[in-house]
Give the backbone structure.
Amino acid sequence: MSEPTLFQRILSGDIPAEIIYQDEQAFVIHDINPQAPVHFLVIPVSPLTRVGEASPEDRELLGHLLLVAARMAKELELAEGYRVVVNNGPHGGESVPHLHVHVLGGRQMTWPPG
């Protein structure tokens, strides 16, 4: 990636956003276009374009992202349940080429998702 991604620009402070959690591998922000009462993104600090391009070396990072998602869901009181979504590629709904995990909750989810 030659240009910084949207999420790298947020992390560097070039684009304002409230980071609600951060550690050495990931950070969390609320989605700017929420699709549920609670909708946040878990984003790796080091950009990985998409989950479909992950390698075995990314195993620890991918697991860490899910653990952060679960921790934040608990902190944001989603005890009734929540949905975890990772979009991959244009047909998968990916709009930012920097892997991120959506966590949606605070309402009953339906199936199949749209």
Observations:
- The first strand starts at residue 19 and ends at 22.
- The radius of gyration is 14 Å.
- The mean pLDDT is 95.
